[in-house]
Amino acid sequence: MYRQKVQLLAGIETMQTTVGAPQSSLFFEQALLPEGWARDVRITIVDGRVATLDAGCAAMPDDDRHGCALPGLPNLHSHAFQRGMAGLAEIRGPAQDSFWTWRDVMYRFVARMTPDDVQAIAALAYVEMLEGGFTRVGEFHYLHHDRDGARFADPAQMSAAIIAAAAESGIGLTLLPVFYAYAGFGAQAPRADQARFLHDIDGYARLIARAADIAATALPDAIVGVAPHSLRAVSPEHLGLLTALAADRPIHIHIAEQTGEVDACRAWSGQRPVEWLLDHAAVDARWCLVHATHMTDAEATAMARSGAVAGLCPITEANLGDGIFPTAPFLAAGGLYGLGSDSNVLIDATEEMRLLEYGQRLAHRGRNLLARATGRSTGGDIYTAALSGGAAALGVPSGLAVGLPADIVSLDLDHPSLAGRTGDGLIDALTFAAGRAGIDCVWRYGTKLVSHGRHHARARIVARYRTVLETLSG
Length: 474
Ligand code: NGQ
Ligand code: ZN
Hints:
With about 475 residues, this protein is α/β, with parallel strands linked by helices. It is about 40% helix and about 20% strand.
């Protein structure tokens, strides 16, 4: 129902955008379209969107010509500010290091950040996302208040910093302002170092409304969703209110990432986190369950049937020692998934894809475990799954098609790892061999933002990032 509505909206936009003269035209020797690979594809762009798309045609003299086009991937889960602490939490501590000791380091890092710092760090993260093959980000944003927890005059001041970073980088944004109230299951009082995250429901509703206003003014196709942080951080009553507040918007939640969280949930409710959520919330296609790492086969099957998207973040899940998602029962039941860069310790869509498959290979001692059937390409199937699942989770339609935003990644066919490859073979070579070095140009909303793998504003955004990092580390 929800997805049909998105499709319908896309159809209306198609009719509007086909009027007007093309502002640019691209030509690709091959392109991955919703119906499969096509050759000699010419795309014209008006107002950021694909106005015409024709396969099997000749290039025109003014066309910007390239070898291979992929639709840009959605990055369904990011905490942009955490890019600033990449590599900072890799020193062994006095007790057993874990997700929870990492979180303490992260909380200390975040304690000093101003809105300008957040904008500078997020802008770098978004530049790297575009360079790494992502054209839209789902920003799971929970750093709302000033350093001592005091409210800003504008409740969406921090959200505005994220929106500004998206605008200056050019990435598409689905902003997911996060609701956070408690330190643990059973309404445990929040910790002092969580003071910057907290709201009551009315304050949160005001935040959502204001953030949506700012985003609509600053960005061409922003979406604002709703995000209960985790079952640890909200009450069952909150969850009901937030689900109602969401209406048709995306709803994202962290869930079952750590075994400690599963144990705490069972102690509190007698149920496992995903089991509890499916029993107590109206989980449907609006929902993205981020991580969902620790599920029984029955939970994985029930989650798949709910229509919710699994938000998988393989690099972060490896970095934090979370565990490995049960792809086999989930995909067997028709589950949808997308990819997220989460902690942004390393931003690279090709590496997320590779690690997703390699985690399964290491755990199950097999190969090509995410290819959907005999004879199918692993890279190709991961790419198309992450494209449609990620877009659904971010509340937008996906793919290279008339009426949709021109969000395109071109490959560097001169990269030796891509030599002699075509179609899905190119995605396999990109995923398992070339990595992000195989990415050439990236267009987002019709504008070429990345050439030869480098974002056009990289130098300026990196220089500002350096200054901010020096202050934060000083
Ligand atoms: C976050 N990150 O909100 O940034 C979380 C850690 C928590 C991940 N789960 C904090 N990867 O879950 O309490
Ligand atoms: Zn997260």
